[in-house]
What we know:
2 copies of one chain form a homodimer. The two termini of chain A are 50 Å apart. Helix content of chain A is 39%, strand content 18%. Chain A has 22 helices and 16 strands. In chain A, the strands form 3 sheets. In chain A, strands 1, 2, 4, 5, 6, 8, 9, 10, 11, 12, 13 and 14 form a 12-stranded mixed β-sheet that branches. A two-stranded parallel ribbon of chain A has the order 3-7. Chain A is α/β, with parallel strands linked by helices.
Amino acid sequence: MRAYMNRLAARPHNVGSPYDKENAEWILGKLKEWGLDAHIEEFDVLFPTPKERVVELLEPSRFRAKLAEPPVPEDPTSSQTSEQLPTYNAYSADGDVTGRLVYVNHGVPDDYEQLDRLGISVKGAIVIARYGGSWRGIKPKVAAEHGALGCIIYSDPRDDGYAEGKTFPNGEWRPPMGVQRGSVADMPVYPGDPLTPGVGATKDAKRLTVAEAQTITKIPVLPISYADAKPLLAALDGPVAPEAWRGGLDLTYHLGAGPAKVHLVVKSNWDIKTLYDVLATIPGSQSPDEWVIRGNHHDAWVNGADDPISGTVAELEEARAFAELRKQGWQPKRTLIYAFWDGEEPGLLGSTEWVETHAADLTRHAVAYINSDSNGRGYLGAGGSHTLERLVNEVAHEINDPEKNISVWKRSQLARIGREQGEAAKEARTRKDLRIEALGSGSDFTPFLQHLGIASLDLGFFGEGGGGVYHSIYDDIYWYDHFSDKTHVYGRALSQTAGTTMMRLADADVLPFEFGDFADTVKRYAGEVKALWQTKHDEIEERNLQLEEGVFSATADPEKTFVPPAREALPPHLNFAPLDDAVDHLSRASEAYEKALSTHESTVPAGELNPLLIESERSLLDPHGLPKRPWFQHMIYAPGLYTGYGVKTLPGVREAIEQKEWSEAGEQIPRTAAAIEREAALLDQMTKVIER
Amino acid sequence: MRAYMNRLAARPHNVGSPYDKENAEWILGKLKEWGLDAHIEEFDVLFPTPKERVVELLEPSRFRAKLAEPPVPEDPTSSQTSEQLPTYNAYSADGDVTGRLVYVNHGVPDDYEQLDRLGISVKGAIVIARYGGSWRGIKPKVAAEHGALGCIIYSDPRDDGYAEGKTFPNGEWRPPMGVQRGSVADMPVYPGDPLTPGVGATKDAKRLTVAEAQTITKIPVLPISYADAKPLLAALDGPVAPEAWRGGLDLTYHLGAGPAKVHLVVKSNWDIKTLYDVLATIPGSQSPDEWVIRGNHHDAWVNGADDPISGTVAELEEARAFAELRKQGWQPKRTLIYAFWDGEEPGLLGSTEWVETHAADLTRHAVAYINSDSNGRGYLGAGGSHTLERLVNEVAHEINDPEKNISVWKRSQLARIGREQGEAAKEARTRKDLRIEALGSGSDFTPFLQHLGIASLDLGFFGEGGGGVYHSIYDDIYWYDHFSDKTHVYGRALSQTAGTTMMRLADADVLPFEFGDFADTVKRYAGEVKALWQTKHDEIEERNLQLEEGVFSATADPEKTFVPPAREALPPHLNFAPLDDAVDHLSRASEAYEKALSTHESTVPAGELNPLLIESERSLLDPHGLPKRPWFQHMIYAPGLYTGYGVKTLPGVREAIEQKEWSEAGEQIPRTAAAIEREAALLDQMTKVIER
């Protein structure tokens, strides 16, 4: 794996770069060398790269941001400056704007709510937000919704710089001039090529114009370092930022607006670039039409030793191991597909375009998709479809933790016991399966899971060691060799975990989906959205009461500006009965199915059952999709419209309540319930198949 | 009040300075000028002042701390350098020590617990602690208990410097070179002159030698600014400090030990200085032997416009008002004593020595003691004996808030409604009286309340505006005029609040003690100490289980040092029955008393009842005092042995449980219960007196 990394991360290999293509060809060569049937599939996508970038302070003094990451002498690849993409946010709108600066913390909706209370508007202003608190693409989107002209995003040293530890190259954390690149496309609306929503970006695809593309930001955005941010923040006056908003710079965090006046320019080359997805197939011996798919991307923002090569090499090693097994005579029952995606960084391009191109086949044949991305030291992180929660737990029992010589399952369990309190700690001690996370977005599982309803898992190790080189030129071999999984023992553990999962999915007689954990999880989600409604109700009721009592006027410091919140109408009660009924049905149906399966173990008609099991995740799709984003069709899992990578479960209902769209919430409850009912009905059908 | 402040804060007036004496004489002159019977009472106390102070970094580079606060051009009194006490901690032991530096956060016992887990010892080291988290005197005490050779305390900019807002003179917060002076005597053992515990420091008092004085620190201590602290902290290596320990400097907070090596020298002149307490008496017309006492100190660390002159001038104005009332023919029924204490800053010297000197008379005659200290803008802060909770609530209903034109009670109530959640918010809306704080220490109420059992209140306004000039040369008229209660309207509100309280205590037929609130409060405290035992029990049980399960070994990052905690024996069950019985008795007795009082309103024999009411706070004393500190005799309220100013209620029981001294806890429960039983029995007696 070290050898693979030394090759793949040797030079910058972003989308459109020569080394990106060379890497794809090298991976293809390796796969073929190992005897696998492999090919490259190309797509042509919009990929803007900067031609003009300016951040300058005009008032009260002048300062021009460097917008550049200096090479570090110890670190050989950091000096490959001619091949490095400049620091920028892909899919920022072009713009040349000037305005007073306002500090907006993370720039999420709650932050603007607080700014409103403090009497600060961003209308006509340029906002500066710190990274964190949401996926970066949310920041310019919400800023634009509030009337801002431009958006600067910076990495505060409190979050991943010197406050966390020594900075690179002395430590793993972000140095003063380090910048986090990244996409700001509105991926929660749809990921992939902004010009080809819903269809593959093949040579002859029908394309939108750039102006028509919905996912490009409305205002210009640039990411900057904390060295560049400091003079801007130091030039702000106005109210002092609330305590939780303050970062690690040695200055008073003021909110503005002004007197700092800033000039921001972003202009891009809006070029079409070619993606190189590499795919290898190991045909199934018994059920070749049932596909088990594995993927990790290979493109990076710069050298990307951590993101994504640490995961890419683990996947590559799995492919080699399966190739070896084949040479020894083993054949999977089902077909294995190993994918190495290009263009994940700008917006899950390679995976999304491939999934959109092959949607019909995938809907028919795909059993499951197993994803990975960056990999480090520590604990198995597993997220995904809860129908696979049992499977991934069973696999985790079999994998040895290289640091502790206990199973990675045991290590995770003990960590939860140590971390959790009360009921959650009790559950960590007693529940058969450790709960897995629901998936939002941020890696290539999204099109599989949330567009096509293919049961998915995302696997990786992390939790020990830190890092502040994410999406910078310093995420490279030197960094990985000094500060992460230096001996690649967790790379091996990832290969073992994902490889074992692939093998079980490929070879099980009855596909290893389990519905008890799923039903239990959905029931929790239903409880959460009901509690959320109650919380919103109680908050509004309490605030209205406080307005009536005069709490806000009595407690406002007359020496500071304070704007009391407006009175709000109480939310109407919602009819959660269809959701409760569906959840009950799902619980009963899953119990009956699991009971039937164990009672009739020896006579289960696997051949008849497996197609229904494959269909089970599809049942959770609604072909109309979610409100305002029909591309996202899964009714249980979605990235949040206002969190980005952060997941929203039962997203139709949950986001309507969060956004106080009461009539939409009323519509989404029966839609969501219907998806769950479909799943329950399918389970009933499967139980009958077994019992027949 | 502005005129008084302009006089009293015009020059530095610490204990032993010429201006301290001049101020006392000026106050005396004013009181006499107004026609009051006033005098100065002198005491002779140990008051060390520095003759040598060194903090220097020896390795890995050299740096010598400035240990000086520069004058600020805009601020005229900041340049009175020849009269300013150097920056130091009074009652630090003399010492000349060199050692590796260790950062210990606040330097409280929990911090050392965490250092133990990280494998870091302070044995033979010099610790650097930041201000906050406890009273400053706790830091060198706990450091010495852990084997440290010396202690440096610094003001982190996160806590009261630039992280909070603009720094002086542009704002109210601590500038880079600002230093917090202050006493580090072990006041939770006994306050007052370290050489005369328990007796007045009169000319002829029997004195301990300095070496015998228990309250002088065991190791040398110096306070420094954040400008001086930065090179020291920047020179540390070793583990990165836990997140909550990190301050606002632009560096990585490492723990050490080393490579920073520090040389610390503290040498003092151990002189005896004279205190000048100023006392004025307004004799009572009906019950001259019942004394209602009011106090605020007049000494400061430097100019002290805020601390204490903002409170001193409010008290002075009260005295003038009462003198005016007398001229108009009013006489209080009881005797009023207005005290202006000297030597509060070094250790409640003036009040403690006066109380110790007059202990027998005070025990016989004192009805109550009303204290104040610094005063600012915002909300009425009231702490004290819960037998006075009703009284102070009633007074607060009558005082107008100068900013909002509602009563200060209403403003406080609305603030609590806005701040609290759940039960506490509900209580803020519905309970007749707003709860008052229990008193720990930190001002002159301590000898009255906790040594002699005189019901006490501490009053002041704060909560709006901030401040980082505490105990520095910048706490002066310029600062107060720009950043605090500029127009002295809250000074007037304090005069009105304390003055009204004094008048009601002086003139009520039946003394306005109330026991329903007190019983309710004691019952809560009893619930808290029982819950505390359970929490300690559950924590130990859980930790032992985790040790058995292997949680600590499984989750320790092998690249970091981690020392698992030791297994501990489970605490024995404690017999809380005597406490529960006493609390029940108190509740019944207080109900009966209040009922009798209202039923027999017109026939209450006030003359017979009042002496018993005066005795009521005395009943709560145990003449043996608290474990390890017999001077503190109040069984309900005490400053914490390991928090300093922070209060411990039911301190005998609570601290024994906190420190896991189970057999001591077993002894303290019946002692505490006995005090509560005495109170209940006294109430029964009073009820009989009324009903007879």
